[in-house]
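User: Round two. Same drill as before: sequence, then structure, for each protein.

Assistant: Same drill it is. First protein:
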Amino acid sequence: MTNPAATLPSRTSDALSVQVALDPSAIGALRSRLRGPVLLPGDPGYDDARSLWNATIDRRPALVIRCLGVADVVAAVEFVGEHGLALTIKGGGHNISGLAVADGAVMLDMSLMRGVRVDPAARLAWAQVGCLLGDVDRETQLHGLAAPLGFVSTTGIAGLTLGGGFGYLTRRFGWTCDSVVAFDVVTADARVVRATETEHPDLFWALRGGGGNFGVVTGFTYRLAPVGPEILGGAIVWRADEAPRILDAFRTLAEEAPPELAVAAGLRKAPPVPWLPQEVHGQDIVAYFVCYTGPMGEGERLLAPIKKLGRPVADTVMRRTYLSQQCLLDATQPKGRRYYWKSEFLPGHERELLDRARWHAERLASPHSLVIFFPLHGAIDRLPPDHSPFGNRDAHSVFNIGASWERSEDDVPNIAWARAAWDDLRRFSTGGTYVNFLNEEEGSDRIRAAYGPHYERLAALKARWDPTNLFHHNKNIPPSR
């Protein structure tokens, strides 16, 4: 066990050189108020708690508080407030920016709070902040229900939802945040409040996409819809020489397919997985990732011409569980790789855009990297633009340039590839961007692009709910003055 004395940065300065010394008695008093453990550098479990999905992020908080309940969160917020300390919050730890951890700060590690409760009659699910998507899906699918969560089951629900959120069900049911009916929140002054359309409706509006700027959300209540347990889904893969035809068909699918059908299109090198023929391993490919959640007979009719496109080298689209579909892309996003993303919302899929995307995919700096297009057109534009701060309801798609590699010595070429591709493709953007895909270097101009006309209202609400900007280790919206 290390010496319990710690030195932490004050939140009143951006410079980590400004320190606040905590003596052992202060940390001892904190421990006495908590059910969860307090970890210092060198303690068992400290390195695991501070580690994130993106291995390019390697920071060392001075103190990790592993919360087991709301009372722990309240005590932690009071502690950092009393001592004027910097605070970060970790849910699933999957965010590309690594904002869950900062050198010398206090980290609230919420990953132990993973309870889920489903009310099938009301079609509601309450989930604690530390849940991963798979935790929620497993419980809701017991009743043939689902919330519109993301594409990778190991993603945390908190960051996904507070930043807007989208997945296979978005074309049917909207952004993830559109399905939230209540947030349980610990505020900057350590109050416990519930935000709904009728209780603190201004806070409720802000949390539907405004990120972690307004409090520590400890629980989410989602509206559910009948989905599964059986759906039609999987992947279809072609060699890259068929990409022009396959991407042209994708243009039509993205605009004309019914909302029950979501087809994402990706360009990458074939991974060495058993369901792909060995002769294509390491070769350039184009792939569809397919999910159909309507009636099975209609889905099979819709998918028949898609399965006949070109000469597929692999086709795993079949009747499967929705749970297995939600894990389909997990292996492409393992914890511990190095990641760097660039992304934009799109008004459509111009042929020139797809041609340029194909050109950049042929020049990948790593076999793990990809360019992928996720369809969005459908339910998101049925709501008014000001329904939530996470608007972007004019978007028909989002592209993500996902650089992914293993070794730190390969950082420069992989980041350069992603930046070059983004510099070329961003001219096709709506002008909006997805806040959850912003990397750590992207600043206030990109945050404003994510929120567009809602930014000033968010800044005013920030001034009301967090006037001292306690919650600033995020894609920060400073309080308006």
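Second protein:
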Amino acid sequence: MASHLMEMKAAVLKALAHPTRLAVVEALGGQGEKCVCELFDVVAPGDRTTLSKHLAILKAAGLVTDRKEGLKVFYALRCPCLIPFLGCIEQTVRQRVDEERKALRT
């Protein structure tokens, strides 16, 4: 049982392990539900098909939910605790960058 739980946790982290998916999570966490067209404007440097694949990965991992309204599909963050978690990671990364810069100066 514990092994299965660890595998599921790893699957969630793996789903987050892409810059576009992280940007989607942050976009949904900051302003709530968004349609795919809004997400494309905010996060997708590529095409809509690529964004749809990233959204499908996040949905399969249980991190986002979707609902259809007419021709539009709206996504929402299902796991709001990700936002402080990603903030903590960002703080750690910034700290590391600062330490590396200081080390280069000396």
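The chain has one domain: 2-79.

User: Perfect.
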